[in-house]
## 1
Amino acid sequence: MIAGALDTLAPPQLVRERAFEEVRDAIIAGRIAPGARLIERELCAALGISRASVREMIRRLEAERLVSVEPRKGPTVMALTRKDAAEIYEVRALLEALLIERFTAVASGDEIAHLERIFAQVRAAAATDAVSEIVALMLRFNDHLVDVVRHDVARDLLRQLNARINFLRIRAMAKPGRIAASLEEIGAILDAVRGRDGARAGALMKASVEHARDAALEQLATQDTDRPSGKRRGSAASRRPTDHQGSR
Amino acid sequence: MIAGALDTLAPPQLVRERAFEEVRDAIIAGRIAPGARLIERELCAALGISRASVREMIRRLEAERLVSVEPRKGPTVMALTRKDAAEIYEVRALLEALLIERFTAVASGDEIAHLERIFAQVRAAAATDAVSEIVALMLRFNDHLVDVVRHDVARDLLRQLNARINFLRIRAMAKPGRIAASLEEIGAILDAVRGRDGARAGALMKASVEHARDAALEQLATQDTDRPSGKRRGSAASRRPTDHQGSR
DNA sequence: TGCGCAATCTTGTCTGACAAGGAGACAAAA
DNA sequence: TTTTGTCTCCTTGTCAGACAAGATTGCGCA
């Protein structure tokens, strides 16, 4: 039996896939500003691919709500409204609570130890104030939960939601005191996990994400204009041209 | 000032949009069998559109998990595994509980009355055993909740999840006794809503969806093969050709 | 019966084309 | 000066056709 000794071969990367990942990453990292238009020609030139492939990629960005497309106007990078952000955090709270609760019920000692190892990395990153590093590690924390719990649906949904708020999470985490609060909350969650108290771990997780939401909304409060209501256009970022320089 | 007197015009229906809706409806209604391959050329012919449009539509079906695409093999209609179904119901339970709880907190008397009117329609349909009618009305029940609560994120996610399990819901609802049980549960939920007891309404909703899940899984238990594991192909439906006859 | 190879499909990608909707510039009219 | 009409340019939506390379299938052969 060879199974286990070899990894399955990575399927040949399709042009449209790589293009999607490239643009998605640029959007969630904020390298393309919210509100910026994505013009097919420019994408073709920047990525070196044909319009057909660009358009297929855009359909996917659209379905994942990373861009919004108005017919005959083309896609613009989605600008997160305050309301969207609040809703995403709410759903995240539910899903992550579910995951940690399940995890507490089914994880082996090793798996819990691995979770704690990730937490240690988060703390290490926190010591250096590497904010986006911290957020990235917290995503790995999540990944471990879904890996263990094997909840594909929750994983997909969280991936989608996290992509939309990634930038906001980083901004929120940069708030003074936020890192320390986060660490403490996660510590408490891990205590509950160690004590195999799933209900408690779930409740703590839910509360933790809701705190994160509050911090994020405060960040947004200063300069966000709730609903992009009808007529008004050109709110700062939206007329800036797309910015591809960051991508290889 | 004219604003407010007029509604914004509906955007012109794009070919790719109509095609998407057509195929999506065929899939969720089961007119195209799970596992069936969707061949581009056949879709072009059946829908009377070009390959480019077909391919853009497929990207969206893919993102919504209605088809799964393997590179260079093309899309096949997603076959719901037992595990997927269980997970979808779990997330649905969380989201719908959230919605009914919010609804209970914010709904006006009129809005509650409208919910009860929809429930009356469900009961009417139940009297005639029109199973798919019942499920459709229950979706409208949901729609009313999200309309009132205005939770766009939850609405999107539920729409996506419901599309994937629609067919299963219908099958589960056909089980003897299931309709009566459902009606009773919804009745209890409405009582809680009327009494403005959000926590109770949420808990009842969660339990109700979980009951539905159990019924659905029983339906699936009889003939489902959990994971489509690697090599094995051609499990009954998957070699059946696509079936477009139902669509205009 | 089982295997290997060639013929046939099918997908992935590119190119080029064209109609029609949107946006901005500019001139004419009130 | 503000409003309206017109023109031009840009961009999207859609189509047709082409071709390489990976998948399938069926057939002949052992």
Note: Chain A touches chain B through 35 residues (CB under 8 Å).
## 2
Amino acid sequence: MLAFERREKILSTLYSDKKVFVAPLASTFNVTEETIRRDLEKLEREGVVTRNYGGATLNERTSEDLPYQTRNTINLEEKRIIAQFLPPLIKDGSSIMADTSSTVYEALQVLQQSKDHLTIITNSVSILQDFAFSSFDVFSTGGSLRKNSRSLVGPSAIRSVQQYNVDAAVVSCKGISMTQGIMDTNEPEADLKQYMQNQARRVILLVDHTKFGAVSLVKTFPFEQVDCLLTNKKPAEEWLDFFGQHEIDVIFPS
Amino acid sequence: MLAFERREKILSTLYSDKKVFVAPLASTFNVTEETIRRDLEKLEREGVVTRNYGGATLNERTSEDLPYQTRNTINLEEKRIIAQFLPPLIKDGSSIMADTSSTVYEALQVLQQSKDHLTIITNSVSILQDFAFSSFDVFSTGGSLRKNSRSLVGPSAIRSVQQYNVDAAVVSCKGISMTQGIMDTNEPEADLKQYMQNQARRVILLVDHTKFGAVSLVKTFPFEQVDCLLTNKKPAEEWLDFFGQHEIDVIFPS
DNA sequence: CATGTATGCTCGCTTTTGAACGAAGAGAAA
DNA sequence: TTTCTCTTCGTTCAAAAGCGAGCATACATG
């Protein structure tokens, strides 16, 4: 039995019972209580459980969130660098649209700390979940829950997006190419993004350096629509020229 | 029985009875009265109860606006008992509407294990989150994220609900009374529930025993609309008569 | 080889619990 | 009202259970 295997089993017990105890776990897995405690400690650091004397209870709010969270920690540093550039571009009290991407998610976390009030319209379930107890006004687009993601898409989401006119759309993508434009991996989200862009006065695109030149399945909207691009490394000269031609403000760490 | 577990159970008794006594608690948990006193002391420090001679009473104010996660673990056993009754009432492949309540949430968890395919329309963020990786089709109503809850409400959610016609509405409430009807603590959710009920061929109401006779702020829909009621304890004879008059099928543990 | 991770073990510290006893509250009787 | 009695509370002490830090070992990984 490997460590992560054990933790997975602990998690599954947690999901069904909402709580676990140190001593029984230790004996079922044939490890010392120390090990179990360390497991629970780890789970607590990840925000999944709260420990109490003799065991731990599940944190409802992140109940099924583990896969997302791990995915979210990939390139987290890059995403945070990008996120730092967003607050100066957003005025307190303004309204924004946010798509379902971990980059945008990180950026909103930073906004939450630096702004008093914002109105957020989003199709991301993760954002809904995280802002349930914030002071921001949050609107969900509704729509169909896309399989294996926390994204709401489809005609209903599109209709919903069209109801709002916002100051800025904060979106990400899977790849940008000078010839192919801005691309995403799946049709429904790419589609929705296009409508988001359409309802916003300004379009702010968040792209980390790995997206430059990456080609992906489906085009979203053209570069002409982008007002501002945030990234985590200085792009190559030809990209800077390209952005200049399209009148896109590029922001990157100096 | 560990300390935190005992305190949870005390809380759960508090939520259903509004008050507890030291001596009976001590004997049910097989601990000394001192221990119970210390538990109550702790709960008092947390602002949940006020102690008085011989026991403690629940602080009314906090009972309504409980954070979701505490509310969710309270009376979990009762909720699971109710949840068990739902699968036989729902045919595989059918479509249902689900509100934002921990009882309905538990019931859907059970459905997830016993059905191959369902279409769920919900205003609950928690359900969206939990079914992101399931085989069910899930639609979000969208709408405004209600403060300090994981519930989507408002005109946009209502419009959205009206787009769908489903086989069953699975809903809960905060209180039922023969004279006042079915009640909830807040207007927006009560409102939405009414529309949900309206779009469903059958209305299934999930109520634990603490809700019987409990009066709450705002009425939702009348008993005439309810087709089936699931609860965790056999209701009193007058309630059974009452349900009979309204042609409501009542299901409870035998 | 060095490095990092996982695990077990020990020891001192904290939390929890029960027992004991005096103090305080409730209710009845004067 | 005052007094008396019984119950309930709070405090203190000690024992037991649980915990965290630090160290050592084992094993994989680079």
Note: The radius of gyration of chain B is 19 Å.
